[in-house]
Amino acid sequence: MLEAQKLTKRFQDRVALDALDLRVEPGEIFALLGPNGAGKTTTINLFLGFLTPDSGDARIAGTSVAQDPVAARRKLAYIPEMVSLYPRFSGVENLDYFSRLGGHRRRHEELYALLERAGLAREAADRRVGTYSKGMRQKIGIALALATGAKVLLLDEPTSGLDPAASHEFSRMLKKLADEGVAILMATHDLFRAREDATRIGILVNGRLVAQHSRDEIRGKDLEKLYLERLAS
Amino acid sequence: MIIGIAKKELVDAWRDGRFRLGAVLVLVLLVVAGLLARQQVARETAERDAATALERKNWVEQGNKNSHSAGHYGVNVFKPSSPLAVFDRGIEPFVGTTVFLEAHRQNQTAFLPAQDATAMRRFGELSAALALQVLVPLLVVLLAFGSLAGERESGTLRQTLSLGVAPRSIVLGKALGIGAAIALLLAPAAAVLALLLSRSAPAAEGTWTRAGWLAAVYAAYIAVIVAGSVAVSASTRTARSALTILLAMWALNCIVAPRLASDVVHGQLPMPKLAEFEVEMQKDVMEGLDGHDARSKQIEDFTQKTLAEHGKTSVDQLPFNFQGLVMLESERMAGVVFDHHFGKLWDRIQEQDRAVAWAGFAAPMLALRSASMAFAGTDFGHHRRFARAAEEHRREFVRLLNEDLMNNARPGDHGYAAGRALWEALPEFRHEVASAAEAWRDARPSLIVLAAWLVASLAFLGWSATRLRAVIL
Asked: B74: phi > 0 → left, psi -120 to 50 → alpha, else beta; which?
């Protein structure tokens, strides 16, 4: 479970995140929508402990990020817009390395199985990732989340730039993870994917969470219109 | 986890074609430098052995003559090369290899190898030591500048930190991995140098101990460069700024500091000009060290004292050749003057060397260079020991000749001549390179400086881990 209590971050005079209260339960996919500069990536960075909050607290499965960032990170997996990998290593070597860093030593066959679960064929897994497309990199990210068995998943624009098929496959994997009880927070611009995948949607404007809607609340409504209205208000 | 990161760093470096190319170049340079140095040392050793044999032959076959005249005939002695000169030639090319030993004079060493070199060769002379001091740090810089700053830019640092890896483990793992890559690169070169050393002329006692110390000081130096470079990479915003800072530091350490330190030290601790030195010394030989006790007066006093001791009124009445005794006394008096002047000169050179070693607090290469020359047996300390040994040999050789004159020539017999039996009885000059313990004493200031650098760079590395950020705003 992932929780923010009055989480606030300022950059000099500008408030990047203003007293964010948020709770994502196991099995939930929370899509955080908002324009550029609304505070989405700042929120992710605060949960990752890459930024220090000015006030408030972010907790990952009960562990305060500010108090023990390393322990908090051990409980989560993170997939950025572009999963960063070592180009001179193959997909399976990258997965092996990162899962070991995450404290999970796995046999090669297990690693291949995880990559296959994430949608990456064995032949591709043996290629150096310097040749990978963005979608293939995202699959390594998913495989890593599977390998570490993280209970919390943080996603920062994960489907940006993916073609529709890759985006669809990525969503399928996310839903699977949620079904397995992973709490997922996804910062995104992709209204279509948010509507398709999220169990809840939050709209962040100028650092403030101005609206939260459950999937049931937005069913049958035009999410784009709702979103633009919130931005304008 | 640290080992895992180090292993990945090592494999990544190895897979990087640029590193492989750089590594091969450095390796080739090290091996070629070692082979060329060995060839040069072997040639010099052969020339020295041949010249030593010829000198002995000429000495023994000089024919019958007055033993004091034989002192003026003189003999050349040659400085033996340290076996480790194949690694670090130190000051060898710039100091003399030969001393002419003769009565009445303490000569300086002559015949500098650098005098025989063309200008181009002097410019391009490369030793294995120089390659390690200058090129390996450059390779470390190229390997380390992006180790953390580059990963921050590419996003892999975020990925790594997001997995709950402690920054300290990342930083240490990176440093260990780069260190291992460099060690792997240097291992074949070290093996070749060890082979060259084992196949060189019978190694002096302690050569392998010295080689061990050399390995230790170079390992410490490279550790300093690796730790410092990784720490800079961890602390800078971009790989480009890390590279700029590290290249500037490399240039200061390896190019600017040696020249600057040498100029500053020579300015602060100037050396006398050679001509002035000789004139001053000869003046003191003639007038006494205090300038009030002229040699002629000292000889006169000595004559009176000798006559009084033997209860005689004329030197012709003495039971030995008084001229021989005067020569002995005259050598003793000159020896005091030589010790004073050469002692001052050599002390000044060693003061300069120590000052340069202490200047290593500003640039570690200065300390490393001093330690390297000391353990290789090619520093001024070793040269001074040779010059001192040659002078002691000269005094003993002249003493034996003068004693022969004193005891075997009749008073006033100017036709006295000694022969081959005496020439053969005079010992040959033998000089061994100083022990490893003496080299260690010479290197002590540099070792202190290098140890301080090692502690400081590790502390910097630890501090940089506390400042390691995935995001720099």
From this structure: left
The mean pLDDT value for B448-462 works out to 97
Cα separations in angstroms, B267 against A208, B260, B350, B354, B355: 67, 10, 15, 15, 12
Separation CA B107–CA B111 (nearest Å) = 12
What is the model's pTM? 0.86
Closest CA to B109 of B124, B122, B94, B125: B94
pLDDT tens-digit profile of A145-170? 889 888 999 999 888 777 888 788 88
DSSP lists the bridge partners of residue A188 as A33
Binding-face residues of A in 93-122 toward B, CB within 8 A = 97-98, 100-103
* B118 in reach of chain A (CB within 8 A): no
Query: Structural domain boundaries of chain B?
Result: 2-466
Across A27-36, B190-199, B365-374, B380-389, least confident range: B190-199
Contact assessment for residue A45 and residue A187, using Cβ atoms and an 8 Å cutoff: no
Other residues' Cβ atoms within 10 Å of the Cβ of residue A33: 26
Q: What pLDDT is stored for residue B119 in this prediction? A: 46
A-B interface: how many C-beta pairs under 8 angstroms?
Answer: 71
CA distance linking residue B149 with residue B60, whole number of Å: 72
B162 vs A contacts (CB less than 8 Å): 48, 73, 76-78, 154
Q: Decide if B163 and A45 are in contact by the 8 Å CB cutoff.
A: no
Domains and CATH numbers, chain A: 2-75+151-232 (3.40.50.300), 86-149 (no CATH)
Mutation target among B1, B153, B162 for the A interface, most CBs of A within 10 A: B162
What's the ipTM?
0.91
Q: From the centroid of its chain, how far is CA B450?
A: 17
> What is the structure's pLDDT at B315?
78
pLDDT at B174: 96
Q: Does B1 touch chain A (CB under 8 A)?
A: yes
Of the candidates A51, A88, A101, the beta carbon closest to that of B160 is on: A101
CA dihedral angle for residue B366, residue B367, residue B368, residue B370, rounded to 10 degrees: 90
- pLDDT surpasses 90 at B272: no
Average pLDDT (B354-359) is 92
Q: What is the mean pLDDT of chain B?
A: 87
Q: In which order are the strands placed within the sheet that holds A29-33?
A: A76-79, A152-156, A183-188, A29-33, A200-205, A208-214
